[in-house]
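Researcher: Structure for this, please.
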Amino acid sequence: MELRDRSMPSRRSAAYALAVVLPLTALVLRDALAGVYGERPLLVLFMVPITVCALLGGLGPGLLCTALSGLIAAVGLQDLPGHFSIVHARDLLQWSLLVGNGVLASVLAWFVERAQAAEGRARALQADTASWYRAVVESSDDAIIGTDLDGMIMGWSHGAQAMFGYTAQQALGRSLGILFHPEDALERERLLASVRRGEALQHHEARRVRSDGSELTVFVSVSPILDTEGRPVGSARILRDVTHLRRTQQQLREQVLQLNADLERRVAERTAELSAANRELDAFAYAVSHDLRAPLRAMSGFSQALLEDHADELPEQGRLYLRQIDIASHKMGELIEGILALSRSTRGEVRRDPVDLSALGEQLLGELAREEPGRQVQWEVQAGLQAQADPRMVEAVLRNLLGNAWKYTARTDRARIRLCAAELDGAPGFAVEDNGAGFDMAHAARLFRPFQRLHRQDEFAGLGIGLATAQRIVTRHGGTVRAQAAPLRGARFEFTLAPPAVPQPSPTEPPGPTDHVIAP
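Model: Predicted structure, token format:
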């Protein structure tokens, strides 16, 4: 195509030159034949140059030669007898043939030239496409193999040579069976049958054999090659080596199994350690509840007996000491109770039963009111507070939170306590709030630590166990607890209990709160 394109300008130039020379040559020839044909114009002599110019140069030279032939014939033949006048019908026919032949030959040559150019471009494009296809096939790392319907190798790429170790000379014309393991004969026959039926196969994992006898794992894709009538005549096979991938996956599986085994071993070890720690904790709780209480009861009892039976025999200083022993004994007993309560909060199985927090809150606040009938406290419990939780543990949480709210509103005029629904980070929960003493949030980190208190003992008595116990119970349920407060402006404690949970009523629209006022 490139050579033909370079020759076109020279051919066209030659055709234009001939379009001038050949009509003159035809005129000379006509003069030479005048003695034979007389006055007949013999215009047929000019048709040959027109045809030659049209075939050599196409439309332009053909039309130019037609025009020049007519002009030369009209001018050059005037000296002949009858010159160029149309005397006979054959003269009209010759002039018509001259013009018609020139136009028709030029147009036909133009169409032929365009068809040849289109055909040349198509051949060039086909050659370029084939070249690209060959480049793609030869540059691919995958093995690309062509076979006929009998499984004979008809195409062998560089990727196939690198993968299997056979050169193209060694592989072409041989059976594809050289790549199959002897145990995979049925697979080979099944693939050949699929090819003969014109069926495609995608991403089939298989075993193959290299020229040195080593095995490899490949992904195989088989596409049938069809003739112009759609009948299968062969197949194109693409094979990708995934041996390294499968080896890596096997290593990862072994590592995962080893990690799982190590994890199970560590879990078993930690479980054994936790069981041992729980047994030690049970032993400690038993010792606290039995072995320590008895000496404390003895100390308190003997101190009271001395005060009651021998008070007159003791000096005032001695009686003061005995009273301090009795107070310290009671204080030690309270600490023991707190330690036991904290221990019980982290032990035992967490049950998931329906709990009516509204009824439980009413009950606990009623108990607090009966214990201190002289206090004037207004409380509000939102109706319909439900949860799926351990009833015993949730009672301990509410008892501590409501008890704290009751205690820290003791010095507040018109004390208010509220139990309601809340939302923590999008999760439904509950809240206990009051307008009591509150606390400084700068010290909030100490709030849930055992035996840590934010108020002095002479301000508000306590052990610092209640909030730590509540926080551990909430954590065991999978929930969270947080506090918001300000000095002399009250506190709000919010907590969640992990799902499954009954949908809670909206905290912005409490369904029928119940108000209570305890008056002296």
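Researcher: Any notable elements?
Model: The two ends are 116 Å apart (CA to CA). Residues 1-6, 78-84, 507-520 have pLDDT under 50 and may be disordered.
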